[in-house]
Write a structure and sequence with these properties.
Blueprint: E1 3-10, H1 14-24, E2 30-34, H2 58-71, E3 75-78, E4 81-86, E5 91-95, E6 99-107, E7 112-113, E8 129-130, H3 133-136, E9 144-149, H4 151-162, E10 167-171, H5 181-188, E11 193-196, E12 199-206, E13 210-217, E14 222-226, E15 229-233, E16 236-237, E17 268-270, H6 282-303, E18 314-317, E19 320-323
Parallel strand pairs: 1-2, 1-6, 2-3, 6-17, 8-15, 9-10, 9-15, 10-11
Antiparallel strand pairs: 4-5, 5-6, 7-16, 12-13, 13-14, 18-19
Length: 324
């Protein structure tokens, strides 16, 4: 028999845990289901742009958010959601090991960056190999970098790195760059950028940290380049197979949301990288997660005939007004 919760949240990244905090604080039964803790935050060894934190790391922030959520009485299980179906006035959430029911669902499943598939790629992850140029480019001021990828991902990566690194190698398989003509023109005009067409990365190596990459062209000729950092921008995979039959997706496979994380399904809300928000950053995911959590709570409260919380919800004690 399915275990009953008022709200179930899928994903324990910044969006999911923030949603959980704002739900659990309302003293309603809440469950977060995730296959891991932190999601893409685990790819961030140094975190310096999260407001209120001078220097932290992705894993540390994930653990902090988890502790905050659990302190409010929420439940957390590590499992994989396989399917969500509609039941009699509820949503049925089937996982690999169990089953749950809920009045509302928050989807914060995140995404997983595509890798190059090199044998030792994971060895240098966060040790010179990165999957988010926007996140990690500032650590390479005045250093030599390379970026490999496709389309707009590669163009944006190369342009951003050109503003910080002393040298940028932009590597791509085709004979010409693809994507927005203005971005291509901008990248081609950068004096510290060298375009490397018709090429792919064959091996990467180093001593503890990444030091060099070996590039192979179409003729099989190999060239070794010394770099401090390699940025892989091959896009990302979003796993929404468990819920895509219930919500509307955009052409990129992201969940389309409106204000408050509302989806096309009245009982399903969404936040974070699995949605069509424009900025895939931790601080944005936290804010959107909190909003989606409160929207889910309001939905459940209205089912009970209660008003829920207003968008400008506040609590007054004496002469002091506290905003939440």
């Amino acid at each position: 028999m399915a275990q009953k919760y008022e709200i179930v949240i899928v994903g324990a990244g910044p969006a999911g845990l923030s949603a959980g905090m704002y739900v659990a604080r309302q003293r309603v039964s809440c469950l977060v289901i995730s296959k891991d803790l932190g999601g893409q935050m685990n790819l961030i060894p140094k975190l310096e742009n999260y407001p209120g934190t001078i220097m932290s790391s992705g894993p540390l922030l994930a653990r902090t958010l988890e502790n905050q959520y659990l302190s409010f009485g929420g439940d957390l299980v590590y499992d994989t959601v396989e399917r969500v179906e509609e039941g009699d006035g509820e949503l049925l959430v089937k996982t690999a090991r169990s089953g749950y029911s809920a009045k509302a669902l928050v989807v914060a499943a995140g995404k997983v960056p595509n890798s190059l598939g090199l044998d030792n790629e994971s060895v240098y992850q966060n040790k010179g190999v990165h999957y988010c140029t926007k996140c990690d480019a500032p650590f390479y001021q005045g250093r030599t970098t390379a970026s490999v990828g496709v389309g707009a991902y590669l163009l944006e990566s190369g342009i951003l790195l050109s503003r910080m690194a002393s040298r940028v190698y932009v590597i791509f398989k085709g004979g010409r760059l693809g994507g927005d003509p203005d971005l291509i023109k901008s990248l081609q005009g950068k004096e510290n950028v060298e375009l490397v067409p018709n090429s792919s990365i064959k091996t990467i190596s180093g001593n503890g940290t990444l030091q060099q990459i070996t590039i192979s062209d179409r003729a099989g000729e190999e060239t070794t380049i010394h770099v401090d950092g390699l940025f892989i921008e091959m896009g990302s995979k979003i796993n929404l197979g468990f819920v895509k039959h219930l919500v509307e997706l955009n052409p990129k496979g992201e969940i389309k949301i409106s204000n408050g994380g509302r989806t096309s399904h009245p009982a399903i809300f969404a936040a974070g990288d699995a949605t069509d928000i424009p900025y895939k950053q931790i601080v944005a995911a936290c804010g959107d997660g909190a909003a989606a959590g409160l929207s889910a709570f309001n939905y459940v409260e209205k089912l009970k005939g209660r008003p829920g919380v207003r968008a400008d919800w506040k609590k007054q004690i004496g002469d002091t007004v506290f905003h939440y």
